[in-house]
Every structure is written in structure tokens, then in C-alpha cells.
Design goal:
- Helix 3 crosses helix 9, helix 6 packs across helix 7 and helix 7 packs across helix 8.
- The protein is globular, with a radius of gyration of 19 Å.
- Helices cover about 35% and strands about 20% of the residues.
- Strand 2 and strand 3 form a beta hairpin.
- It is of the alpha/beta class.
- The longest helix is centred in the C-terminal third of the chain and has 25 residues.
- It has 2 domains: about 100 residues, 2-Layer Sandwich (Nucleotidyltransferase, domain 5), CATH 3.30.420; about 160 residues, ATPase, nucleotide binding domain (Nucleotidyltransferase, domain 5, 2-Layer Sandwich).
- The structure holds zinc ion.
- The site of zinc ion (ZN) has 6 residues, from loops.
């Protein structure tokens, strides 16, 4: 298979539960998609099988974009997704290059891909600078500065979830203390509610529904998580001096029961940072395909 005259891109979005695969055309339409489970033996082989099956019938592709859970190393083309233990310094770029010798796959961190997609095609369109956030089972971010992605040295700039907002608190999985993710991720809000006696032990969706129905434990847990995120966002916006943040991910889809709290805490925090004027916090608009679309944009723009 070679680049030839196709404008189609093969996109991968590598997460802890699944690897989403898609063929996307030159107008960002997803033509075909499939997925490979992330937690299985011989994942590298299974991924290649999945890709070949998706591409069967495709004459050629123009580019390959890979969005991956972090950390990654763009210099080496390696990935070490925290929740895929069998891949440590896994050479994903080299693996794909061996199969598609004419194409240089472009690797980008998944939350950075979401930020890029939201900036080019979604809620961040028209802003030259923005912070993009993803809040779901984890918390991540990406920075757009002067219309360009800021990757950082290794591709992990905006590794938002593991900046500390409480350095004397308990240890995070990453080894630091008091990381934003420890409080703001969906499962953390659920755990907090359960510890306070909330009995519908399920997931964040159930917690949000319970809060909507007026359960005060559920409301307090969501308030706590939203406040942690707001503090983290204000930290980053002040450090980078940007005034727009776009927030996506599963937790952000809970609607007003989450957003009312997030906005309230965000406004309280950011108003203390006098130089960040006309600050805006905006819901993402691209939904679950934002990572795939960001991978496509990165590949096409060779970022
Ligand atoms: Zn951490």
C-alpha cells in the first residue's frame, strides 16, 4: 500500500479500554471504523490485524495519525500508556512504518489531539490560544498557542491531570501527591459519594442522575470534583496566560448538574487572576470522535 493519490487518513485513538480505528476522508468524514480491545495478549499483533482488516478494499491511504494515551515520546515514536502495562516504550511509529513503508505516521498525545480537533473544527474555532481539557476516567489536556499545538519536548505538554493542587495530600498512582486527577476524574467523585454514604454505587452517569434528582451527597461529590478541576484550569490559564478553555470528555457530558458547579468555581478562581480577562469556559462539541479527528488533523498537517 502506498500514499499515491488518496486523501484518506488512517486514524488510531489508543485508550485504556479500546483502540479506536478509522478511515477518514479529506473532509474529515469517518468512512469506516472498528476497534481493538486494549487489554489482551499480543496487543501489537491484534492491532495490526485490526488495521489490515479495516483497510481491506482500500487502494491506498495518504497518511497515518496516532493519538495515544500518555505518556508518549514523540522524539522516539514510543508510547507508554499508563493503563496499558504491556506497552512500555512501545515503538508504535516504527511498527506501523514497517507495514506502510511510504508513510511517516504522526504521533500525538490523545488529549492534545482532542484540543487540536476542538480548535480546528469544534468549540475552539476562531480563538488563537486555548487550553483543551478532557475529563473522564482520567484528566488530560492540550495547549494551542498562536494557532499551533504546543507539544513540548516529548509531546506531553498539557499533561494536566498530574499537576498537584494539594501537595500534602495522599499519593497519586503517578507517585506525586494531590494531583488534579485524584479529585476531578469521574470515578473519584463516585468514590467520594460512596464514602459519604451514597448507595447507588455505579458510575459517574448514575452519580450525575442522583444529583439531578436532588441527592445532596451526590451534589456535594460533584461540587468537590468540579472545584478541583476549576482550580487546576485556573492554574494553567494563569501560567500560560490564555483566556479560553474548552472542556470535553465523559464527565463534561453530564450537563448543567456538572457545568453549573464548574462555571461557578471557575469564575471564582479566575477572577483572582487579574490579568486573565474575559475568561471563557466552553463545552467541547465534537464528542467521542475528537481524538480520532485530532489524529487525522495532526497527520494531515504533519504536526
Ligand atoms: Zn498523579
Amino acid at each position: 500500500m502506498n500514499p499515491s493519490d488518496s486523501t484518506n487518513t488512517l486514524a488510531l485513538d489508543i485508550g485504556a479500554t479500546k483502540i479506536a480505528l478509522a478511515i477518514v476522508d479529506g473532509e474529515n468524514r469517518i468512512l469506516r471504523r472498528s476497534e481493538v480491545k486494549s487489554q489482551q495478549p499480543n496487543l501489537a499483533n491484534e492491532l495490526l490485524k485490526g488495521i489490515k482488516s479495516l483497510l481491506s478494499g482500500e487502494k491506498s491511504i495518504a497518511s497515518i495519525g496516532i493519538a495515544s494515551a500518555g505518556p508518549i515520546d514523540r522524539r522516539l515514536g514510543n508510547i507508554s500508556p499508563v493503563n496499558i502495562p504491556q506497552w512500555r516504550d512501545f515503538p508504535i511509529v516504527e511498527n506501523l512504518k514497517n507495514e506502510f513503508t511510504e508513510i511517516n505516521p504522526v504521533l500525538i498525545q490523545d488529549a492534545v489531539a482532542v484540543a487540536l480537533a476542538e480548535h480546528r473544527l469544534g468549540a475552539g474555532s476562531g480563538f488563537s490560544d486555548m487550553l483543551g481539557m478532557v475529563v473522564s476516567t482520567g484528566v488530560g489536556g492540550g495547549l494551542i498557542i498562536n494557532n499551533h499545538i504546543h507539544h513540548g519536548l516529548t509531546g506531553n505538554a498539557g499533561f494536566f491531570g498530574h499537576h498537584s493542587i494539594s501537595y500534602l495530600d495522599e499519593e497519586c498512582n503517578c507517585g506525586r501527591r494531590g494531583c488534579v486527577e485524584m479529585y476531578a476524574r469521574g470515578p473519584a467523585m463516585v468514590s467520594r459519594a460512596i464514602q459519604s454514604g451514597w448507595e447507588c454505587a455505579e458510575d459517574f452517569k448514575a452519580l450525575a442522575q442522583s444529583a439531578r434528582e436532588g441527592n445532596d451527597i451526590a451534589q456535594e461529590a460533584i461540587d468537590f470534583g468540579a472545584r478541583a478541576l476549576a482550580v487546576g484550569i485556573a492554574n494553567v490559564m494563569a501560567i500560560v496566560d490564555v483566556n479560553v478553555v474548552v472542556v470535553g470528555g465523559g464527565v463534561s457530558l453530564a450537563g448543567e448538574v456538572y457545568w453549573a458547579k464548574l462555571r461557578e468555581h471557575f469564575n471564582n478562581e479566575i477572577k483572582q487572576v487579574g490579568f486573565v480577562r474575559e475568561a471563557q469556559i466552553i463545552p467541547a462539541t465534537l464528542g467521542a470522535d475528537a481524538g480520532l479527528l485530532g489524529a487525522v488533523l495532526a497527520a494531515r498537517e504533519m504536526l
